[in-house]
DUF5926 domain-containing protein
Amino acid sequence: MGKGAGAKQARRARRSAVAEDGINPRQACPCGSGKRYKACHGAPGGVTEIAVARPFEGLAGECELVALREFVPSATVKLQLAKDAKRPVTLGTVLPLASAALVRQDEDESAFVGLQVQTRSLDISRDVARSILWAQEAKPGDVLSLVNQDDEVGERLQDVLVADAPFEVEVHEDFAWWLAPDAEPTGEVALSLERANAAIMPTQRIGDAAYWTLAGDKAYLRWVRPEPEEQLLNALSRLGAAGTLNLGEGSKFAGSFRAHGLLVPVWDLDAESHSREWEKPVAELGERLADALEDKPLTSDERRVRDGLIGRQVTIR
């Protein structure tokens, strides 16, 4: 056998090979980077650690946590801790100076932990849990700028929260909740508050993990869905083929993105309509989606719609 034939066979073997961990090198990397496995975690000498694909899986608030982490500007949730707590803890989207956690110098010694923070590990669930545990031991006035990352072992949100507890989100128009009642911001905190308030986009929660946002002269609905991606894509395809994927007049399906293991469909909305006008259409679309989550093959029209939906997907952390 000549060298040319041998080289061809070797290339063919490499193309069909499956990595030791069971991942085809030509498939998308499970880390969510959008690259093929062979160009990402499967590359020789490449990244060896894989980020947790669904860091909030198993929590009743998984979809809400994804929304608060990725695109809701100002919101808080009072957390229900699984163990006796020294002080109450509130989860916030962003804290002053993008801190990971802080303890107020007020009567209750209220503790706050941030979700939109710089992380050192590949598991945001573990980082936020560490912030919660830090807040139980910190002194009033203490601020945690960045989560200490000594190792990859430690409790996660699934360990420190009541997993099935209601996750009640309160959306705010600004970041006044950073401050204790009657407190006046000073120094860097005052500057950070001013900048944060100036950059905030009007946002309203109009359904479970469904958020309306006004960005300049455009309005959007972003809806974090809990279903497995393939099942949800098929349901969206069925609605798209039937012409019922929109939210009524003044709306258009724009596409979807992946975040922390979940799919987030997005709709363009009429910016002239008040956010509350979309509550009923969202609820009705939710009912149509529930009916479309059936386990049967797609028709040829539905497959064509599905191909178009896939072409409009992106992945973010």
